[in-house]
Design brief:
It is a single chain. By secondary structure, the protein is an alpha/beta fold. Helices cover 31% and strands 26% of the residues. It contains ten helices and 14 strands. The strands form three sheets. Strands 10-9-8-11-12-13-14 form a seven-stranded mixed beta sheet. Strands 1-4-5-6-7 form a five-stranded parallel beta sheet, sandwiched between helices. It has a two-stranded antiparallel sheet with strand order 2-3.
Amino acid sequence: MKDHELMLFSGNANPALSDQIAGYLGMKVSASEVERFPEGEISVQIGEHVRGADVFLIQGTSPPPNENMMELLIMIDALKRASAARITAVLPFYGYARQDRKDRPRVPITAKLVANLIVAAGADRVLTIDLHTAQIQGFFDIPVDHLYGAVVFLRELEKVFPPPVRSDLVALSPDVGGIKLANHFARHLNLPLAIVDKRRKGGAVTEAFNLIGQVEDKNILIIDDLVSTATSLVKAAAILKENGAREIHAAVTHPVLAADSVAAIENSHLKTLWVTDTIPLGDKAASSSKIKVVSVAPLLGEAIRKIHEDTPISILFEHSE
């Protein structure tokens, strides 16, 4: 919609990332006010005229997820009622995605529910990064541009692990569900692949871990889309050490880092955890010597530019499947 004015708006989920995206595009985030009524309900006021504009609203559903989700929906509704020509919901992190299928009796499919809510609120398009499962794109009845954190990670890893060093590196998936993502890194960097197969022993807590692949006397790069409590990541690192691995690194797109995860990472066998800024780091994570941030602002900024100009964004999938 290059004949319509491009406007950026931001909620409160990740204002620093919104400012970086705006800076990349050489513009400013447009004015809006997000306040609370005395009982806690969210109140929104769009501060600029948006009639006929091509609007991009940057608001992920990172912690606190319920607050940020409602803020997203209400801001979309406000923009729609103000007659924006098109509203693209830019969700650096798409929450409620882990419940993407009915795998037990009497459970919801929240990934589909949230998709329905975003469409019902009035979004015309969604731009996001590393959905927990790629098929969530099909839960939407509007176009979805699904970018990959691998694009920014691989550029960084190619610098950190040049070819002479890379010969001793192994890509590893911390569970069977992440094999496709880890395999993509392995193919691009020309690395062997290993897997930690995690299985329940018969309770809610105890788990058995089986290692598939050769890791002895190798440096390891664990690949995943999300780190929450870091339990699987830390246990995988411990298993790798027990099996003779040398340095253990990880690249994880979304740093949820809930509960005592940062302390667990600091006390683990992990040497480096690369994450992106799809979710703002808390103070503990920001001060960690092990956690390094790679920004997705240029990736999202370029995607916004191309969507606005109605030009292909295929170049942004350079490192994707």
